[in-house]
Amino acid sequence: MGRAPQDTPAGIGTYLLLATTMLFAAFPLYWMFVIATSNDEALAQIPPTVVPGDRFLVNLDEVFSLQDVYFAASLVNSVIVSTAVTAAMLFFCSLAGFAFAKLRFAGSRWLMLFVVLTLTVPNQLGVVALYIVMGKLGWNGTLLAVIVPGLVTAFGVFYMRQFIVNTVPDELVESARMDGATTMRVYRSIVLPAIRPALAVLGLLTFVATWNDFQWPLITLGGTDYPTSMVAISDLASGNYVIYRRVLAGAFVATIPLLIMLFIGGRQIVRGIMEGAVKS
């Protein structure tokens, strides 16, 4: 019998490459913090300063004190929208993925094909129609116009369907049905515990994408007093004279929730991706 293959330890070159890549990836965030803590003269210095200043709280107070931006309310709106969309996405996409993966009904394959084909349609093509529909419902200018269109996506349904196919055996589902379990009981007791890594990945990606969404919130909430955080940052950067220390101070604060989410769920992302790769 041959010897089992062993992992080859990474060399110093690998670690240097990873460290360099990490520095390049983190530098924009660090530079944003440097300007957010500095005065207006810091941007004009040659060579530019790379040391944080001591005006972060002062700049932040100016951002939250602006009467025409309502930055604090925009952060609250982003939390509400991102949390609602993420929760709905996890429920509806996992439920639909379970139906496509384990339930047998007429036209399921053609319907799944249609769902996948919608991924090829750019979101920009539906903006006008979506705005008209939201207007007919009287939701334009409200958070419902931002939340409802994102309750379920084709990518989420397809991702959950593929993960459930590879993770939940058909025999386990059939055994539960023979024991008298209903469809919702199978979903709740068997499917959900098995797909927790996938739920963590989808939830984190959905939260980050919803938090960073700019185009549709700008269209439907841009003229209101309480938009989302990305629209508020755009308002900070508008005007004839842009005060970049304010813009970057607001952007840094709006980035903190994303960093927290990535710190909490980063391990789950790696686990979910690796499990999907191994089982596919």
TrEMBL record:
Lipid bilayer topology: Multi-pass membrane protein
Domain of life: Bacteria
Keywords: Cell membrane, Membrane, Transmembrane, Transmembrane helix, Transport
Biological processes per GO annotation: transmembrane transport
Gene3D superfamilies assigned: MetI-like
InterPro entries named in the record: MetI-like, MetI-like_sf
PROSITE patterns, sorted: ABC_TM1
One GO cellular component term noted in the UniProt record for this chain: plasma membrane
Protein localization: Cell membrane
Annotated transmembrane regions: 12-33, 69-98, 110-133, 139-159, 190-211, 243-264
ABC transmembrane type-1 domain location: 75-265
Sequence similarity: Belongs to the binding-protein-dependent transport system permease family.
PANTHER family: ABC TRANSPORTER PERMEASE PROTEIN MG189-RELATED, ABC TRANSPORTER PERMEASE PROTEIN MG189-RELATED-RELATED
Protein name as it appears in the record: Sugar ABC transporter permease
Organism: Micromonospora acroterricola
